[in-house]
């Protein structure tokens, strides 16, 4: 073992010993990533190794370069991948060597954590760079480890609003779950829906309610390639502009989870995307702006499906959140509570937390403590590996609504779920309409009975859940249109749109907000495409005015969409509006006077793993 170490040291110096080959082979890489767990005045960086199976190194060497004027000191400790292989980290100046008197391979992951003490006068952008990267194979051959993301610009002093501006911010909404690293990233897309400049502060909180430092990328900032390690982001948005906050981290690092809160001055909404990068799956949801006495979530843990739940306490004091679990008929099957610290968070698989939900479907209700405020998120995990958000029904919702898109046949199914969140029985009336606004007969199964109909009328018991499953076959011709839900009680719902050939699905919420305008964030760059569906939920034809803006808020196109009474239209955004080709920004749909519309966006990546884009309202 000693001889192997001596061979490695000699090889890195370019000397051959004992007939060992000194040829350099290309295999794997070293990279840098920002470690958000850093004390004030420091930067913490992960050195990450990646190698193909069978090509893992037994020793590594690198140099971490940086401007001397910006750094006054440094420390380094071996990372989890290094300690698992019983390696020792030795650093002299900027050069480090990871070695061990053993032949154990170093598995992929974080091999070192480098902490840099910043100078008081450090610049707003400090570039750290890996150079002179080498490794040794188990036979002591030198392996060139090319730096991938070897240059990492970091902003050690992110912008913070002065106290005069911060004092004017008011709480706007929350996100019950953010996830970073371990393959996960959370993208928060802020949208200024108003006609004046707006200020926004996004704060991240850990499970225990403390500030949650996370690695952030701000692709629309003045330094888009610079990383920030922070627990809050302050940003001023021009009228109509968008701003993306990307919380991400290396796949090799353990996933960090928490929640986020948005405070604003002005009209700022937000769209949130939870993205699992290895499979390109994601779930999209709106910022939770409702302040309700209770929140109800439909769950299904049957047929290999799992339900995930996240809940955040938005109060500045610890709270105990009462929980009621019911079956599909509305009967209670269990009550309990969840304790959360001030600004705390909890995320779990429903069956792990509540055994009564194993193999069951129904609803779960989270009651807001008196004087408190909470936020809830549900995620549906079918066996295929896809996942999607589950709309949460709030007690303050006006109920009913329009579902902007349904598709049945040619591989597509649309499953409608209805929930009566009230204390009394309620009538639910569901209607399907074609593009032209005429009745659209659809093959469905309701309460075990198969039929073909354009209308479903059912009475739901208090707190009951009803599933209306479309029965279109892959070989059937495609039917598209929209659905409208009305009720004499507190019945809400949503549709689950599924494409069977790739087992991908997403959610179409019932639009109940009756807003004057709906704003959709789109992205047609980097191989992405955006689909749009618009439905007219009124008995008269309408002309919907459309305004398209780029990410800075500058108008790039305007037009109109004519829809007949109860009509519907679905299209690829670039086909209808050429100005959106290779662009990102927003598209605003203005409701005609006295009318009611619903809008849905679809994010269509090249992988085929589509997801919905919920719309924000002014």
Annotation keywords:
16-stranded mixed β-sheet, mainly beta, globular, 618 residues, 5% helix, Immunoglobulin-like, Hypothetical Protein Tm1070, Chain: A, 5 helices, 6-stranded antiparallel β-sheet, 5 domains
Number of domains: 5
CATH domain fold name of the largest domain? Immunoglobulin-like
Structure annotation, total helices: 5
Give me the count of strands. Answer: 47
Oligomerization? single chain
Low-confidence stretches: 1-26
What percent of residues are in strands? over 45%
Fraction of helical residues: under 10%
End-to-end distance: 68 Å
- Overall pLDDT: 91
Q: Name the overall outline.
A: globular
Name of the level-1 CATH class of the largest domain: Mainly Beta
CATH architecture annotation name of the largest domain: Sandwich
The biggest sheet, with number of strands, parallel, antiparallel or mixed sense and barrel status, is: 16 strands, mixed
Our Rg estimate from Cα atoms comes to: 27 Å
